[in-house]
Amino acid sequence: MDWIRKTFSFIVVFTVFYTTCNALTPSTFLTNADQQRLKKVLSTAFPLTELTTAHYAALGYSLLNEKLPEDPCKFFDSKIDKKRLDTVFHASSGSKLVPSCKLTTTGLQQTLDAAISEDTSMQDIYYAVMSLHNLNLKIDNNKVSRIMTAILKKDDSVINLGYAFNIAATLQKDLKSYFERIEDVIVQADEVDGKYLQFEGGLGITATTIGGVYKLAEVAKTAPALTADQAIKFANYFLSRKFVQTVKGAAQLIQVLKIFATNKFHVPVAVTLASNSALSDENPNIQVRITNVLGESLGPLTVTADNAKRLEDGAVVLSKKAFQPVKGSNILYTFNFMDIKPLRGLYTVSINAVPSKADPKLIGNTGARISVKVMTEVAVENAEIGTAFVDQVSSAKSTRITFPKESVKFDVDIHQKLFLKFSLKDKNAKSPIIAHQAFVMFANQKTKQEVVFNAESDTSGVYRFDLDVKLKEKDFQFASGTYDVYIIVGDPVLKNPFMWKLGQAALTFSVAAATTVHENPYEPKPEIKHMFREKEKRPPSIVSNTFSVLCVAPLLLLFILWLKPFIYFWSICLFLAAFEHVFNSKISVRLGPFHLFIWSSIIEQISSRQIKQRHSITVFDICSS
C-alpha cells in the first residue's frame, strides 16, 4: 500500500501548491484572445433583429474600439414604442454610441415624465431617467429623488439599489444619501471559495450594481465602501465569467472590467506567468506579465521577487530578487531563477510590483504569487535483475544491467522467483531520488497482455521488486510465454520520465491458460432482457387450510371464553328489565283509582260553579281554590 501513501501525499502537496499559488490577486486578465472571442459573441447580433441585443452589441463594439458591421441608427429609431419604456431605453442608449445618430423624440418627454411615479418599479424609473439623459431631455431631479426614496422604503433589494446608484450618478443629486447605502449592498454579496464575490442573480445584477457603485463614487469624489480584498474578489468573479455566451452578458462584462481598469479608487493588478512554469538549465528564466484586468500596461514598475519557498519543506531559497524589464515590452519582467541552484521541486514565488511614484489605487500588486517547478534529469544506477529458487535464496543468480540498454533474458517457472532492484539518482543534485511513480511491467509478446506491479523503495532509496511466479500466476491468468520486462518511472519534476525495456522473461505457470476471446469493446452489447423469478412450487391447499385453522383456533377459544361472562351479564340485565316492567305495572294498578277520584272531583266543581269573571279559569286556579 506504499504507492497509495505516496499518491495521497503527492495530492496533498499539489493541493497546497495550487492554493498557495492562487492568492487573493487576479490570476488572469482579459487577453486579446478573450476579447476576440467576446467580439465573436457580439457579432451574433448582426444582422439586427432584436432591439436589446442591438443595444448591447453596439455597447460591446464601442468598448472594444471596434467598428460596427452595420449602421444601427435607423433600426433603433424604428423600434421605439412609446408604450414600452424598455424600447425607449435600449434605442436611446444604443443611438448614443453611434456617431451622428439622432432619434425622433416627439412626445417622448411627456411619456417619460409620466412614467416616473411611485406606482412604477425602480427598473422603469431607471429606464425613464436614462432615456431622458440619453436624449438630452429635461429631468425633474427633485421628483425623481423623492420617488426613488419612496420606492426604496418599500423595496431596497440589491438590484433596486444598483439602479438607484446609477440614477444618482447621472442626476448628481442627493449623492450622500445613496453613497451611504453602498456598504449595505456590499455586505449582501455571496463569497465563493474565499476568492470570488457576487450578488445573487449572477453577472447582470452584479455588473449593474458594482458599475453603479463606482460611477457614484466617481461623481462623489470619494472612495466607495469596498476594501481592497472585496474589490479584488469582485474582479476575480468577473474574470471567471469571461467565457459568457450571450450578447448582453459579453457587453456587461467588458463594461465592468473597463471600470475596474480605469476608475480612480481600485485598480486590480494582474500578475501572471508569461513563461513556461517548468524551469531547468535550458529554461532558467521566470518571466511575469503585470497588467490591469484588460491586459493594459500600468506604466513603469519596480518588480521584485520578495521570496521563493520550496513547498516540500517550506525552505526559503531567495529573497529580494529584482526582475528586469524585457526589452521592447512595457508589461513583461524577467529574472534567472536557476542562478541560485535550486533543488528539484515545486516553488511559490511572492512578487511585488510597485510604481516609481506611489499610486494608492493599485491593489493586489504586493504579495502576488506565482507557481513554478524546478525540473531535473534522473539516472538509473545499480540496476540488477536475477532469478532464485523460492526455497533456496543462496542459489540466486543475477545480472547487472546498464540503463538504457536491453541485455537480459530469463527462464522462470513456478519454483522460482524473479527479483529486481535499482536506484534513481538526481543528475543535477547528485543525490538519490524517490520518484512519484515507479512500476515494473510485464508485456506478453504474443497476446499483448500487460501486467503492472508497483516498485517500492526501502529506507535507503533502493527500489526492490520480487515476483514469486507461483503466487502471482493468477495475475497473469496462467498464460505462460515470453514477456517483455519494463521499468516505468515518472514524476512531475522529471525532464526525462522513461519506460525502460530490460529484456525478456520466459514465464512458465502450473496451469495452461484457457483460450481467452478478446471482445471488441466498441461492438454493441447484447440486449438486456429482464427475467422474472419463476414461481415456487406450493404445497396442497389442505396443508395451508389446516395451518390456517390451527393459527385461528387460539383466537376462537379466546372469543368463547370472553362470551361466557358476557352471557351471564346479559341474563342479569334481562332480569332487571323484567322486574322494572312488573314493578311499574303494579304501581299503575294501585294508583289508578286515586287518579279517577281526583279527576271526578275536579269535573264536578267545574260544572257547579258559575263563571262570573271574564278571564278564563285555569286548572291551576281550580286546584288552588
UniProtKB/TrEMBL annotation:
Ranges annotated as spanning the membrane: 539-561
Membrane topology field: Multi-pass membrane protein
Name listed for the protein in its UniProt record: Dolichyl-diphosphooligosaccharide--protein glycosyltransferase subunit 2
Residue ranges the record marks as coiled coil: none
This protein's UniProt keywords: Endoplasmic reticulum, Membrane, Signal, Transmembrane, Transmembrane helix
GO BP terms in the entry: protein N-linked glycosylation
Subunit and partners: Component of the oligosaccharyltransferase (OST) complex. OST exists in two different complex forms which contain common core subunits RPN1, RPN2, OST48, OST4, DAD1 and TMEM258, either STT3A or STT3B as catalytic subunits, and form-specific accessory subunits. STT3A complex assembly occurs through the formation of 3 subcomplexes. Subcomplex 1 contains RPN1 and TMEM258, subcomplex 2 contains the STT3A-specific subunits STT3A, DC2/OSTC, and KCP2 as well as the core subunit OST4, and subcomplex 3 contains RPN2, DAD1, and OST48.
Pfam families linked: Ribophorin_II (PF05817), Ribophorin_II_2nd (PF23861), Ribophorin_II_3rd (PF23860), Ribophorin_II_C (PF25147)
Metabolic or biological pathway: Protein modification; protein glycosylation
Record domain Ribophorin II C-terminal: where: 532-571
Organism of provenance: Trichonephila clavipes (Golden silk orbweaver)
Compartment(s) of residence: Endoplasmic reticulum membrane
Gene Ontology cellular component annotations, sorted alphabetically: oligosaccharyltransferase complex
UniProt domain Ribophorin II third: residue ranges: 381-506
Domain (Ribophorin II second) ranges: 269-374
Protein's job: Subunit of the oligosaccharyl transferase (OST) complex that catalyzes the initial transfer of a defined glycan (Glc(3)Man(9)GlcNAc(2) in eukaryotes) from the lipid carrier dolichol-pyrophosphate to an asparagine residue within an Asn-X-Ser/Thr consensus motif in nascent polypeptide chains, the first step in protein N-glycosylation. N-glycosylation occurs cotranslationally and the complex associates with the Sec61 complex at the channel-forming translocon complex that mediates protein translocation across the endoplasmic reticulum (ER). All subunits are required for a maximal enzyme activity.
Taxonomy of the source species: Eukaryota, Metazoa, Ecdysozoa, Arthropoda, Chelicerata
Keyword Transmembrane tagged: yes
Top-level taxon of origin: Eukaryota
UniProt domain Ribophorin II N-terminal: residue ranges: 30-260
Family per record: Belongs to the SWP1 family.
UniProt-listed InterPro entries: Ribophorin_II_2nd, Ribophorin_II_3rd, Ribophorin_II_C, Ribophorin_II_N, Swp1
